[in-house]
Amino acid sequence: MRITNKRIFLVASLIVLIFPFIFDSAYTLSIATFAGINCLSAMGLCILMGYAGQASLGQAGFYGIGAYVSAILSLNYGFPVVFSTLIGCVVSALAAVLLAIPALRLKGHYLAVATLGFGEIIHVVLNEWGPGGPSGFGDIPKFYLFGYVFNTPLSYYFLIWAVVMTLMAFSLNLINSRFGRALRSMHDSETASSAMGVDVPSLKIKAFVLSAVYAATAGAFYAHYVTFISPSSFSLFQSVLVLMMVVVGGITNLWGAVVGAIMITLLPEALREFKEYDILVYGLILILSLLFFNKGLVPIILERLQKGHRA
Amino acid sequence: MSLEIRDITKTFGGLVALEDISFDIPSGLIKALIGPNGAGKTTLLNIISGIYPPDKGSVTYRGRPVHGLSPSEIARLGISRTFQHVELFGNMTVLENIMVGRHVRTKAGLIACGLRLPSARKEEAEIRRQSEEVLHYIGLSHRRDEKASSLPIGEERILEIGRALATEPTLLLLDEPASGLNEAETIELSKFIKRLRDERSLTILLVEHDMRLVMDISDEIVVLDFGKMIAEGSPEEIQNNKLVIDAYLGEDDQ
Amino acid sequence: MSVFLQFLFSGLTIGAVYAMVGLGFNIIYNATSIINLAQGEFVVIGGLLMWFFSESLRLPFLLSIVLAITFTGLIGLLMERLTIRPIKKKDLLLMIMITIAVSIVLRGILMFKFGKDPYNYSPFTEGDPINIYGAYIQQQTLWVIGITTLCIILMYLFFNKTMLGKAMKACAVDPTAARIAGINVERMVMISFVMSAMMGAVAGIAVTPITLMEYDRGPMLAVKGFCAAIMGGLGRGRGSVIGGFIIGILESMTAGYIHSGAKDAVALIIMLVILFFRPAGIFGSKTIIDLRRF
After folding, report:
1. What residues in B contact A194, CB-CB < 8 Å?
2. Which of A194, B146, B199, C235 has the fewest CB within 10 Å, making it most exposed?
3. Which overall architecture, per CATH, does domain B3-86+170-185+201-248 show?
4. C153-188: burial string, b at 16+ Cβ within 10 Å, e else
5. Nearest CA of chain A to the CA of B112: how many Å?
6. In chain A, whose CA is at the least distance from the CA of B108?
7. Cβ under 8 Å to B: A residues 213-252
8. Measured distance CA(B174)–CA(B192) in Å, rounded
9. What is the pLDDT of residues C58-110, one digit of tens each?
10. Residue B206: what are its φ and ψ, rounded to 5°?
11. Contact map slice: B 64-103 vs A, CB within 8 A
12. Secondary structure letter of residue B219 according to DSSP
């Protein structure tokens, strides 16, 4: 039985559909919803880092822009939530372009730190000039579509995972297309890639914008789910968390990003006993993954399965 | 006249890599660029393919000035190349490497690819078909789904040429394609390059150290030494040119 | 005028810390081309350990200083041994993430041991603040500036006048060539981490009586120290020192005259501006950046 993306997609869709009927408490559904939100961020970062090969430590910045823009527009200006979410994505995309144009000329360390700086600046801006300042604000409208309000755990679960699977399909299409090949070629050799006609600077910017839009979408859905947001959710730690999801699950594999997102979302639950250790455990997991599971869990598992199949 | 190079000069922070280089490459010929190590051959290739601009001088291709254009623009104009140290896309399969070569002649963008629009799907099928053709032409069909980094050096070099062919070039720049090949592989390469000139009417600029290969297949030869042109002519003329012989004294014999 | 001087000295104080962190960055970068994003944690560890030895264990002042610096140096050593050396392929992204992960682990341990409270201990010399043109400058401030200046001079001498220092610089530019020349690259890397950690500890020990120290000060210090290092051109000690002081003063002025909340953004904006327009830094040279193996 060959492992193809289509098959994995079908199995995943099946799991998504069946899950809430087995684990139907509001609590588990809420965790599953957060996992979905995190999947969106992780997929975006995976495309940027795993496929395009560009470092980013500033995902939280785009996440925050998506959340705040959508929340403010829908709460204070009465925008329908769908529109405010879209505008949040657009603003995030613009910020990404503004950041990318100068930043993508930088290499390696410099790029990573530039994105880190960007994320931190957004955090400071939200802290100083966001509604409610450091304490944040609430009463954010819930998500609604054609008059139907998503205010039950089950409905939001399906909403978020519908978005995740849709974006996953989009992403898979992208990776296995002319666009995706151009990205991957750029990762392996920028020189050769541009010699084959790939417009490398433009492609880098597109990859950046893509990851920013994914993160903004996650941010908006987050805001309309928890209905109360504050700058502390959009700090460097959040960026590192998304990084961890991608690293642990598999930098170069979209499904890895999903697995990593789910695992990292579950982590605080598993650590509930050890509240004082939680930062420590995060750090240790990250270090161990980097030292030993260099490629991430999913690619390693896939490799084992392929080898077994060939034998 | 395919490629015209006039007065190309390039310095790197005080080091003069090229000085007043001028020559032509007539269409449909194999022109070799030779010279001792450090003579500036790869630098010239990099200037022609757009990796960096010359400080002075011009490169004109089929009447169009191309110096200063980006590598991707130059690829669009029909100039493609291979690299001294093989620059394959190691993490992609052999077929995918060729398919990237089709990038310059295709256009499905982000949205079309992500949504798998009919136009993108049609183009993708064409890309696959044409890439398979190129793969067959270079004789690597049996390696189709293997990772490019797993190939032996001889096949790597052939694959790199195949990838360049996929861009439908009219001028092909080959940077030391025989480097790392044994005698048998070099002879195969030699025949292959001649086929490219004869069957596909390609113009070829060949940078090479292997003198037997150079003398065997070149129509014309240009010789560089320390960034300056010291000779230009047919293989016979170059072989008997005193300046050329002097330049190579002290170099390892090939 | 006195207000201005007040801000100036407060800026110099914090600027001194940034300068030291920047120097720490440079030391490791000079030997390994790695940017150690856990650099800020060494400062915090130094300060908190000093409290532990002098206040909690009630050990004599000088002994506490020596112990705090030594222990922090050991932590630097451990970090290098456990997380840097095992990596065969020094992939850039991997290195960045590892140093981030280490900073998280260190922070976790600190939080566990010391909790989230701020810690303090008595300044090096007791006494009234010194009056300079109407500005009241704590004596500790002068200690901070003085110690920092001393360290800077020592670093300069080390890297430019001693064989060991020059050997360390050689390693970053080309470790293979350095190895051929007989330099023990692995040992240089280890020494660079230890020195860098101790330097951070010195800064933390000196500044805690003024600003207090909490477990999570690290990342901000690291980012701003990196700004300082970048301003001067990565790898050039003098530049990062000047950069550190400039950032500190600008921060202080911004907080005082413009808007206190925005002060954190100052360093970040400066850093981005420099990265985007002059990555070699104000004092650096573009060619060196291009030639540096990354």
Report:
1. 70-72, 75
2. B199
3. 3-Layer(aba) Sandwich (3.40)
4. eebeebbeeeeebebbebbbeebeebeeeebebeeb
5. 9
6. A178
7. 252
8. 12
9. 888 889 899 999 999 999 999 999 888 877 666 777 787 888 889 989 988 89
10. -115, 120
11. 70-72, 75-76, 80-81, 83, 87-92, 96-97, 99-103
12. S
| CB of C67 less than 8 A from some CB of A | no
- What are the residue ranges spanned by the domains of chain A? 5-234
Distance in Å, alpha carbon of A55 to nearest chain C alpha carbon: 7
Chain A contact present for B122, CB below 8 A: no
d(CA A172, CA A166): 10
How far, in Å, CA of A98 to CA of A110, rounded? 17
The answer to whether C198 and C182 have CB atoms below 8 angstroms apart is: no
| Cα of C69 to nearest chain A Cα, Å | 23
Residues A223/A79, Cβ–Cβ less than 8 Å:
no
Under DSSP, the state recorded for C66 is H
**Angle at the Cα of B191 (from B189 to B192), degrees rounded to 5?**
60
Contact call for B114 and A185, based on CB within 8 A: no
Counting DSSP H helices and E strands in chain C, the numbers are 12, 2
CB neighbours of C289 closer than 8 A, spacing ≥ 6? C233, C234, C279, C280
Chains that touch C (3 or more CB pairs under 8 A): A
Contact (Cβ atoms closer than 8 angstroms) between residue C72 and residue C103: no
List residues bridging with B60 in a β-sheet: B4, B65
List pLDDT tens digits, range B172-217. Answer: 999 999 998 999 999 999 999 999 999 988 999 999 988 889 999 9
Q: Of C41, C64, C3, which is closest to residue C209 (Cα–Cα)?
A: C64
Note whether C107 contacts A: Cβ–Cβ < 8 A: yes
**C223: closest chain A residue by CA:** A117
What does pTM read for this prediction? 0.87
pLDDT per residue as tens digits for the range B38-92: 788 999 999 999 999 999 999 999 989 999 899 999 999 999 999 999 999 998 9
Dist CA A266 CA A271 (whole Å): 9
Side-chain half-sphere exposure of A284, counting CA atoms within 13 A: 8
Indicate the range of B87-101, C141-155, C270-284 predicted with least confidence: C270-284
**Amino acid in the structure at residue A31:** I
Helix (H) or strand (E) holding C61: helix C61-79
Answer yes or no: do B96 and A178 touch at CB < 8 A.
no
Residues 6+ apart with CB under 8 A from C62: none
What is the rounded distance in angstroms from the CA atom of residue B59 to the CA atom of residue B4? 6
Q: Which amino acid is at C148?
A: T
Domain ranges of chain C: 2-291
Top-tier CATH class for C2-291: mainly alpha
Q: Is A97 on the interface with C (CB under 8 A)?
A: no
Residue C223 near chain A (CB below 8 Å): yes
Selection from C232, C155, C254, C241 nearest residue C199 by Cα: C155
